[in-house]
Amino acid sequence: MTMLTKDTLKGFVPAVVTPFDARGEIMADAFSDIVEHLIGIGAQGICVAGDNGESWALDRDERARLTRIAVERSAGRVPVMMGCTAPGSRQTIQYAQAARDAGASGVLVMPQTYVLKATREELLRRFELLGKAVDMPIVLYNSPRRAVIELSIDDVEAITSVAPVVGIKESNRDIGHLTRLIHRMGDRIAVMVGPAYYILIGSALGAPGFIATGPELLGKTAGRLMEIGRKAPDADYVDAHHKLTIVYETLMSLGTWPSSFKAALNLQGLPAGVPRDPLLPLGGAQLDKLRATLDELGLLPGR
């Protein structure tokens, strides 16, 4: 197992899709093949049961099963983390214990969801309990759009004092916040970018990598994004940033993201399957628009 540390959490870390068949069953072989594909195009880590792995539709045993498959297929080449967010500490800890037992190198965890706000004491208690229960590396996940709660930089610093935090996926879409977070915490934890159109900017500011869904549609360019981002802007930088922006905006505008993302992977020839209830597959005019956009960007097979 590859250890997850501040220094190994870097580069292209995709939140891998969970392929389901028409009955809603996990397509285990397809999932394994997608993990191999991602490592082949440069992934330096794998995140199982993230938002766009349809974590909300996965129970504890399914998360553990996917994690075992990813750990086995990666064969120590990259660290594997598992999304473990739940509203309460008890279920979050149960997910984290399943991740540990399945061989994960670490866990990705948001603040408590659904409660709309949390005091500093409540935040610290959540992560302190988690750290004591599983004693494995934690990657914080700051996504105010999903959790509603936004972690301030002071919150992040305080949490690192009570739990084994090695990094954070920062998805608050505020470049000023990202700049300040990297400046204050970048020497202590890996500050990983979330939204695709901030990846190159974040790289230039000193972020070591990104945990995201969508960049893999760029193929091997996804594995080079940190390198591209640290160069002075040139043709590669402009082209990659344009494609990341268009891909991200297109996926966000068509259907529900897991539906549009799975449709995009299927169009590229990867066995992503269909989304699980309550989502529906992308189809009709929206699928046609997605196909046309990917074709225009040169991201379909044969282009």
Task: Itemize the secondary structure elements and their pairings.
Blueprint: E1 11-14, H1 28-40, E2 46-48, H2 60-74, E3 80-83, H3 89-101, E4 106-109, H4 120-134, E5 138-142, H5 144-147, H6 153-160, E6 165-170, H7 175-185, E7 190-193, H8 199-205, E8 209-212, H9 225-229, H10 235-253, H11 257-267, H12 284-296
Parallel strand pairs: 1-8, 2-3, 3-4, 4-5, 5-6, 6-7, 7-8
Helix pairs in contact: 1-2, 2-3, 3-4, 10-11, 11-12
Task: Tag the structure with descriptive keywords.
303 residues, 12 helices
How many beta-strand segments? 8
Overall average pLDDT: 96
Distance between the termini: 37 Å
Strand content: 5-15%
Radius of gyration (Å) = 18 Å
- Shape, per Cα inertia axes: globular
Classify the secondary structure makeup into a structural class: alpha/beta
Runs with pLDDT <50, length 5+?
A: none
Largest sheet: 8 strands, parallel
H/E series? EHEHEHEHEHHEHEHEHHHH
The helix count comes to 12
Strand order of the largest sheet: 1-8-7-6-5-4-3-2
Indicate the percent of residues in helices. 40-55%
Q: What does this protein look like?
A:
- It is a single chain.
- With 303 residues, the chain is α/β, with parallel strands linked by helices.
- It is 44% helix and 11% strand.
- It contains 12 helices and 8 strands.
- It has helices spanning 28-40, 60-74, 89-101, 120-134, 144-147, 153-160, 175-185, 199-205, 225-229, 235-253, 257-267, 284-296; strands at 11-14, 46-48, 80-83, 106-109, 138-142, 165-170, 190-193, 209-212.
- Strands 1-8-7-6-5-4-3-2 form an 8-stranded parallel sheet.
- Helix 7 links the parallel strand 6 (165-170) and strand 7.
- Helix 10 crosses helix 11 (257-267).
- The longest helix has 19 residues, at 235-253.
- The radius of gyration is 18 Å and the shape is globular.
- The termini are far apart.
- The mean pLDDT is 96.
